Amino acid sequence: IGASGSDDDNERNDVAEEDTDDDDDAAFFDTRDFISSSSSIKSKTSSFSSDDEGISVVGSEGDIDPSIRSVGTNYPHVKRRNKLPEPVEKEKGVSLWSLIKDNIGKDLTKVCLPVYFNEPLSSLQKCCEEMEYSYLLDRAYEWGRRGNTLMRILNVAAFAVSAYASTDGRICKPFNPLLGETYEADFPDKGFHFISEKV
């Protein structure tokens, strides 16, 4: 009986280890991915070529035509702030659990949340942040004019996911804009003028 009991314990430990391995595989990490230096060196010199269509993708920045590389970078430089200033007064902490506990059974649209649960900008401004890497669209246009459709779609895809570059550590949602609220941003350094309105 003692031997079979230890066998059962070993089987349970094996099953528990398999469960943790499955949990590790299912884990999702958002933006903190770093490539080792050896793999980044290999990726810069690597290239992909297709015999069927004659398409080739270069891996190093030095192989790209200088006219393509300069697309979207010849605008005047404008110095902008990197982060918002610290608040003058510190807010009193409120427990999210106590808010949930006090509002059980209530209509959630009527529950007032503290202001500091929101990011200090409007969702209209948040929409403008997606244009941060707009030069990728300019490069995609240039590649398309030259007939390289693969590099065009790569730059468009890079622009599509570039909106997630600033989401690391930003867990608060922006304020909802009021009806008729507008936001206008002029970025001569990036070559675009952004206007949005809540309708």
Provide an overview of this structure.
- It is a single chain.
- This protein has 199 residues and is α+β, with helices and mostly antiparallel strands.
- The chain has a domain at 116-198.
- The chain has helices spanning 2-26, 37-45, 66-69, 96-102, 123-129, 135-145, 149-161, and strands at 48-49, 56-57, 118-122, 173-175, 182-187, 192-197.
- The strands form 3 sheets. A two-stranded antiparallel sheet has the order 1-2. A two-stranded parallel ribbon has the order 3-4.
- The chain is elongated, with a radius of gyration of 26 Å.
- Residues 15-29 and 36-56 have low confidence and may be disordered.
What portion of the residues fall into strands of 2 or more residues? 5-15%
Largest sheet: 2 strands, antiparallel
What structural class is derived from the secondary structure elements? alpha+beta
Shape summary = elongated
SSE sequence, one letter per element: HHEEHHEHHHEEE
Helix content: 25-40%
Tally of DSSP β-strands: 6
Kindly report the average pLDDT value.
Answer: 72
Instruction: List unreliable stretches of 5+ residues.
Output: 15-29, 36-56
N→C terminal distance: 75 Å
Spatial strand arrangement across the major sheet: 1-2
List the helices and strands and how they pair.
Layout (H helix, E strand, L loop, with lengths): L1 H25 L10 H9 L2 E2 L6 E2 L8 H4 L26 H7 L15 E5 H7 L5 H11 L3 H13 L11 E3 L6 E6 L4 E6 L2
Parallel strand pairs: 3-4
Antiparallel strand pairs: 1-2, 5-6
Helix pairs in contact: 6-7
Organism: Trifolium medium
Pfam family, one: Oxysterol_BP
GO molecular function: sterol binding
